[in-house]
Amino acid sequence: MDEKHQAAILLQKGGPLSVGERATPEPGPNEVLIQVKAIALNIVDSFQRDFGMPPVPIYPAVIGSDVAGLVAKVGSNVSNAPPLGSRAIAFASSFYQNGSPDHGAFQKYALAQSEGVIRLPDALSFEEGALFPLAVLTALSAWTTVGIPLDTKYTPQDKQAVLIWGGASSVGTFAVQSAKSMGFTVYTTASPKHHEYLKKLGADVVFDYKTSDVVSQIIDTAKKDGVILRTAHCVVHGSLQPTLDVLKITKGDAVAKVAHSPFPIPEGPTLDGAEIKFNLPPMDPAERNEHMYKCFHLWLQNGLKSGTVVPSPRVQVEAGGLEGLNKALDTLKAGVSGTKIVVQV
């Protein structure tokens, strides 16, 4: 393994990324060093590049979080990682590592904590493997944020329904898959071209969010299906108000619980009898590590083995490797629908 490797480095707030060399780090006791083969992009990556938000505590920085590659080295205390040389999916983010640039995804060798590293099944490509980490962590954290344990298993007799507003997004597709695995009746919204795909992922009913009466459509469907609808995940911007309009009618006398994944709106809409919480993993490091283990080693790894979890949405590979990351992030910023942008390293 080389002592140095190439990285797309964020030299200062406002970007752009610049490809240069970094020293290849040694993994700490609970860490895994990944030789990166594919990186998936998230809209938060463009926010960090362009605005330094969420906060980037150290410059030069290495941002990004989603990789698939090969296990290059394993820390001394790691017992749950894939073996050396094996194919792996990894959440390689500096966000919970005080901004440490050794941990960002946008480089050829990246550190990841072992709770966020699992084996990549042989049937999946590196590009498909890179789709999972942040989207899975975000989708599953939404449930625990509103007090729903990840091992929840509702039966059809429980009649529990959930509304996921923004199902065709990367996070939305895993929100649908995870809600289905918990036994919810899954209602979601998307453009009509994505409806059949979301049904394959487990959605029971998909609504066109652009129709003027979408709120009343959802309310009428919940009544017709005889379900209890008091839980929701707002995945995309602008989804909180229509979600609350639905829950106002469907929640009955109970408290509705809403997870909100976009950056919080200071003066956002509210609803009496609804708890609206910004979606985040636990802030306590020990609790967060346990949560990450449940997300990756239990839900994702077991779901991939059993075939109940599949890579989603479809991969869109952008050319240029690390040098092409600026252009790929600009493509993402311009807007994609039902796709996840990936670069090969």
UniProtKB/TrEMBL annotation:
<dbReference type="InterPro" id="IPR013149">
    <property type="entry name" value="ADH-like_C"/>
</dbReference>
<comment type="similarity">
    <text>Belongs to the zinc-containing alcohol dehydrogenase family.</text>
</comment>
<protein>
    <recommendedName>
        <fullName>Enoyl reductase (ER) domain-containing protein</fullName>
    </recommendedName>
</protein>
<feature type="domain" description="Enoyl reductase (ER)">
    <location>
        <begin position="14"/>
        <end position="343"/>
    </location>
</feature>
<dbReference type="InterPro" id="IPR047122">
    <property type="entry name" value="Trans-enoyl_RdTase-like"/>
</dbReference>
<dbReference type="InterPro" id="IPR011032">
    <property type="entry name" value="GroES-like_sf"/>
</dbReference>
<keyword id="KW-0560">Oxidoreductase</keyword>
<dbReference type="InterPro" id="IPR036291">
    <property type="entry name" value="NAD(P)-bd_dom_sf"/>
</dbReference>
<dbReference type="InterPro" id="IPR020843">
    <property type="entry name" value="ER"/>
</dbReference>
<dbReference type="Pfam" id="PF08240">
    <property type="entry name" value="ADH_N"/>
</dbReference>
<dbReference type="GO" id="GO:0016651">
    <property type="term" value="F:oxidoreductase activity, acting on NAD(P)H"/>
</dbReference>
<dbReference type="InterPro" id="IPR013154">
    <property type="entry name" value="ADH-like_N"/>
</dbReference>
<dbReference type="Pfam" id="PF00107">
    <property type="entry name" value="ADH_zinc_N"/>
</dbReference>
